[in-house]
Amino acid sequence: MRTTYRRPGRLVAFAAVTALATSLLAGCSSDDDGGSASSDGKITLNVGTFGVLGLKQAGLYDEYEKSHPNIKIKENVIERNDAYYPKLLTQLQSGAGVNDVAAIEVSNITEVVQTQGAKFEDLSKAEGVDKSTYLDWKWDQGTTEDGKTIGLGVDIGPTALCYRKDLFKKAGLPTDREELAKAWSGDWDKYVELGEKYMKKAPDGTKFVDSASSVYNAVFAGATERYYDKSGKEIYEKSQGRKDAWDAAMKVAKGDMSAKLKQFDPTWDQGFANAKFATVACPAWMAGYIQEKTGASGKGQWDMARAPKEGNWGGTFLGVPSAGKHKKEATELAVWLTQPEQLSKVFAKQASFPSTPSAYDSLKPSPATKAYFNNAPITKIYGDIAKNIPSVIYGLKDAQIGQSITDIGVLQVEQQGKSPAEGWEAAQKEIKDVLGQ
Amino acid sequence: MSETTEYAETASPDKGDAAPAASGRRKSSPTSSWRSRLYRWDIKASPYVFVAPFFLFFGAFGLFPLLYTGWASLHRLELTNLDDSTWLGLENYTNLLQSDYFWNALGNTFTIGVISTVPQLAIALGIAHLLNYKLRGSTLWRVAMLAPYATSVASASLVFTLLFAWDGGMVNWIIGSVGFDPVNWRESSWGSQFAVSSIVIWRWTGYNALIYLAAMQAVPHDLYESASLDGASRWQQFRHVTIPMLRPTILFTVVVSTIGATQLFGEPLLFGGTAGSKGGADHQFQTLGLYLYDQGWINGHLGRASAVAWLMLVILLLIAAVNLLIARRLRKAQ
């Protein structure tokens, strides 16, 4: 009795296992990437971004969906680029799960152009793309040697200095942005000197600057010589730009003027909210961040002035991976998103600065942003810097070399009490390991 | 190994009552011989079918990655170009064995492992002992013990990062109110390892306590009774009755925690914040897991990262061997 009763059960189990096995294997073999063309005939375009790119915040997706009823846009955001970029590479390599449109950070663009060029669509020939719309250097960064443009510029990072008027006043420093810009014009050492002056009368619990690393990045943003030379050889040891940035960062790290925070850490965010530091280098894309993290208490207290030298820190491109399901639609979207009219809207919302110079004259920051930064002429400050950003050579591992210097070298001196020589030695050793030498 | 045991377990109850009946039927009626053949086939094959799902999954998600990682570890393989690999032989391994960063990570993994596992298990044992008494609302206490385990690594690490913040963190505030200088937890070598360990301890103590508690409740009550009749105090009962009875459980938790400690990744990564995979400016809390991630995904050297993964496997196998020896000793001693 028991055997006859049991047998069908076993057959069912067997069938279930077989079904499971086949579905498992089927799941491995087919790259059915869901969510592309849904049942109602709409095409879903996935946009992969990191941080706050501002496209969604400026309402551009909604606008595009309205004018293109058959398109739905889904943004997949990863907060930090150091997590986003490895994922992007894996997706490009496997061809599975790629976003239809993918954001690329400027410090990775050279590696993407040189090693992943074949895996992207050529946007230079796409309809509606006009090379002259974009800044020359921005266009060139996204273009391979044989003239294939794989990334269209979204925003650039002209770098100004943001400072807290209230803290400057308490420390007996001038608070007028023109006066300050003049005081440190042309030389970062003058900025550091001002920091020493600030520290003599610093309001309780505050420092002059958030971190030595941010000074390194700000100075390096204006460097004409970076980590690589024209032939793609690493020159980070001798590079004048690197040396200047390092020296300035060392003066800050060895002195008392740094709040010793690590950028983009939760504690850094708290530093904004609690007014722990009086200045921070602010590329355009950071202006929105400062507002968000400082909150209402900083309204009208933050102000901005031109930095000692013009420089570019950060910025983003949009590319269309060839493995995507809807390349045509994705290309149209990427082109539309990077037109001056659209990028002006992002600026109005987020203060991210467009890579399309024709938009500069008509750029208007949102009234809230303007009021937040004490009615500073944001457009003019960033526009003037943007026009004078030097054209520089980026290299394969720019991102990783930069990180080794700031998060190993500078940090050792700033927080672990090592000497600048020890810090530089540690950074060099790290870079060699990064480069696999 | 596991196939044969599964086979024996699932097949034996059937044999007990059904096998004689089937053989009897075969003698009496030859037409039902296909049935008995089917039945025998069923007996032989079904257990394999039952265990098949595990092995299918293991093959797809365990064995294949393992072998592929082994292959990758013998090649120069970059994240930027997976189609292009050059044969290196053991070069990735020799490079690793000569790298200060690798030995540093190994050392950190060991020290963080010790300062997180030992207190964790000791505290868990104590808590389990307390929970074993008759308590009001015992379920509530037990659920509370398990709450940290149910918390995600991300949120736990975020909270601990803020607690251990150098400027304005609660831990430094407490230290300061007692009159000590604030400690830069993240950038000091012992401080950071202690902080990372504290996250691990917080998350896993309750889990281990519940395992101990379950084992304690299986200890026969008359042992305690006779011990108390002999005049043993509570503490003596704990030492001479509870602990010896718990020995296999303790060994199990030691093994599981050791494996967990060797693979430690999420806590130090998130504690490190920006550039967390470096494990601090001086790599002071970079574990092997972080080093692997840093090599493979930040620096893009997948071949070298695979070699780290295989060395971690070797280390785990060594630990398992040592554990086996100890277990055998213990059994002999009993």
Written description of the protein model:
The complex is a heterodimer of chains A (about 425) and B (about 325). Chain A is built from 18 helices and nine strands. By secondary structure, chain A is an alpha/beta fold. Chain A folds into two domains: about 45-155 and about 315-360, 3-Layer(aba) Sandwich (D-Maltodextrin-Binding Protein, domain 2), CATH 3.40.190; about 155-310 and about 370-435, Periplasmic binding protein-like II (D-Maltodextrin-Binding Protein, domain 2), CATH 3.40.190. In chain A, strands 1, 2, 3, 4, 5, 6, 7, 8 and 9 form a nine-stranded mixed beta sheet that branches. In chain A, helix 2 (about 60-65) links the parallel strand 1 (about 45-50) and strand 2 (about 70-80). In chain A, helix 9 packs antiparallel against helix 10 (about 240-255) and helix 10 packs parallel to helix 17 (about 400-415). The N and C termini of chain A lie far apart (about 75 Å). The relative contact order of chain A is 0.16. Mean pLDDT of chain A is about 90; it is low at about 1-15 and about 20-35. With about 325 residues, chain B is mostly helical. Chain B folds into two domains: about 1-60, no CATH class; about 100-335, MetI-like fold (Orthogonal Bundle), CATH 1.10.3720.10. Helices cover about 75% and strands about 5% of the residues of chain B. Chain B is built from 13 helices and two strands; from the N terminus they run H-H-E-E-H-H-H-H-H-H-H-H-H-H-H. Chain B has helices at about 1-30, 35-75, 90-100, 100-130, 140-150, 155-165, 170-175, 190-215, 220-230, 235-260, 265-270, 290-300, 300-334, and strands at about 75-80, 80-85. A two-stranded antiparallel ribbon of chain B has the order 1-2. Chain B is flat and about 75 Å long. The model of chain B is unreliable at about 1-25 (pLDDT under 50). At the A-B interface, helix 1, helix 3, helix 4, helix 11 and helix 17 of A face helix 1, helix 2, strand 2 and helix 6 of B.
